[in-house]
C-alpha cells in the first residue's frame, strides 16, 4: 500500500511538472489534458485519477507554490525573534536563493507572473490569487508590527504600508530575475539586494 501511495504521488508530481511546460508553451486556454499526459508519459486516465480538468491542475500548481510559502512565513513569525527586521531580511534572502536552485518552482512562477493571460476561464483564478496574496500580506505585516513595537523601525508608517512597499520591491526583483535568470546571478545578488532594502528601514539605533 505504501509503495502504491508513493507511486501515485510521483505520478501526480510528474503531471504537475508536465503541466507547467505545456501551459507555458501553449497557454492554459489552448492546452489539453492529452498533451499534459503525453508530456508526463502517463495515460489520460492517470491524469483524471488525480485531476478533474486542467483548471484543477492549474489550481494545484498555484497551491504548490502558495501553501509552502505561507507556512514558511508563519513559522518564522511564530518564532518570536528578537530582531524581526533581520529575521525578515534572512527569510526573503533565502526565498530568492531557494527559488534560484529550484527550476520547477521557477518555471511555475514564470507561468503565473509572466505568461498567463488572466481572461476567460482564468479570470476567477486571478481573484483567488488576490485572496491568497492578502493572506501572505497579512502574515508579513506581523513582522513589521513586531518591529514597530520594539522600536526597530519608524512608527509613523503603518505595518501595512511597510508590507506593501516590501511586496512592490520583492515583485520587482522577481520580475527582473524571471525575465533573464541566467543573467541575474541570484546567488550573488540576493543577499546584497536584501541588505540594501532592509538596511534602509531600520532606525539609526538599530541599523
UniProtKB/TrEMBL annotation:
Residues 9-69 form the HTH tetR-type domain. Keywords: DNA-binding, Repressor, Transcription, Transcription regulation. Coiled coil: none annotated. The keyword Repressor applies. InterPro entries: DNA-bd_HTH_TetR-type_CS (IPR023772), Homeodomain-like_sf (IPR009057), HTH-type_TetR-like_transc_reg (IPR050109), HTH_TetR (IPR001647), Tet_transcr_reg_TetR-rel_C_sf (IPR036271), Tscrpt_reg_MAATS_C (IPR013572). The keyword Ribonucleoprotein does not apply. Pfam families: TetR_C_2, TetR_N. It comes from the Bacteria. Gene3D superfamilies: Tetracycline Repressor, domain 2. Residues 32-51 bind DNA. Signal peptide: none annotated. GO terms for molecular function: DNA-binding transcription factor activity; transcription cis-regulatory region binding. This is TetR family transcriptional regulator. It comes from Alteromonas confluentis.
Amino acid at each position: 500500500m505504501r509503495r502504491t501511495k508513493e507511486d501515485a504521488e510521483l505520478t501526480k508530481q510528474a503531471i504537475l511538472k508536465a503541466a507547467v511546460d505545456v501551459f507555458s508553451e501553449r497557454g492554459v486556454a489552448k492546452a489539453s489534458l492529452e498533451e499534459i499526459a503525453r508530456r508526463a508519459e502517463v495515460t489520460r486516465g492517470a491524469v483524471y485519477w488525480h485531476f478533474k480538468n486542467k483548471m484543477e491542475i492549474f489550481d494545484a500548481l498555484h497551491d504548490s507554490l502558495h501553501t509552502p510559502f505561507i507556512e514558511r512565513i508563519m513559522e518564522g513569525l511564530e518564532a518570536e525573534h528578537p530582531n524581526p527586521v533581520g529575521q525578515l531580511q534572512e527569510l526573503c534572502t533565502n526565498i530568492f536563493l531557494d527559488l534560484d536552485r529550484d527550476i520547477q518552482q521557477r518555471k511555475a512562477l514564470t507561468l503565473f507572473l509572466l505568461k498567463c493571460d488572466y481572461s476567460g476561464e482564468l479570470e476567477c483564478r486571478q481573484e483567488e490569487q488576490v485572496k491568497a496574496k492578502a493572506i501572505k500580506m497579512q502574515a508579513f505585516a506581523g513582522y513589521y508590527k513586531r518591529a514597530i513595537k520594539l522600536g526597530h523601525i519608524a512608527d509613523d508608517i503603518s505595518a501595512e504600508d511597510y508590507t506593501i512597499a516590501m511586496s512592490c520591491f520583492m515583485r520587482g526583483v522577481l520580475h527582473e530575475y524571471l525575465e533573464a535568470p541566467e543573467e541575474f546571478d541570484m546567488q550573488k545578488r540576493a543577499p546584497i539586494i536584501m541588505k540594501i532594502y532592509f538596511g534602509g528601514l531600520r532606525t539609526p539605533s538599530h541599523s
